[in-house]
Design a protein that fits this description.
The chain has helices spanning about 25-30, 50-55, 75-85, 90-100, 115-130, 145-165, 175-180; strands at about 15, 60, 135-140, 165-170, 185-190, 190-195. With about 200 residues, it is of the alpha/beta class. Strands 2-3-4-1-5-6 form a six-stranded mixed β-sheet, with helices on both faces. It comes from Pseudokineococcus basanitobsidens.
Amino acid sequence: MQGVSFEVRAGESVALMGPSGSGKTTVLRVVVGEVPLESGTVEVDGLDPVAARERGWVGFVPQDYRLVPFLSALENVSFALEVQGAKGAQARGTALECLGAVGLGDLSGRRPGELSGGQQQRVAIARALSLRPRVVLADEPTAALDPATAGQSLGVLVEAVRASGAALVMATHDPLVAQLADERLDLREGRAFRAAA
């Protein structure tokens, strides 16, 4: 992949558009530090992706949500905080606050199997926001949702990240995502082309 260059400021959102295989998810994986760059640079507030991830500055909402099935929504979010060093009561308090921000405060005791697809995605959003990241990455945020749920969940994602002050980068082929983003970047044949959002 070459020719992909963009900047996202705090409170702004970018949609990476393109067909399957165009490199959208790869870009996210580079930013999150999972895929090394052969050339070029990626910075999150002046840090390289690995260092930024270690500080909790990068939040990730994967397409499959990656929720632990035997943990409640509250435990899924608080566990991420505890891994970063937060204490039990503090982690649970922050987790409950983040679940409330995405409209799941009343369902915090339910396990993923007891939640709808849209609700599971909101747990993943709350988990991503719980570490107060500088940037949130969302991979195909509407792919696993029915059309009625997709618009609502996408609105929750965009508004929750905007309220947190983080930047948002979404990889998608869904035009609905592009409509809600501040800017759209079209990926074709390993290159990026800017387009009006």
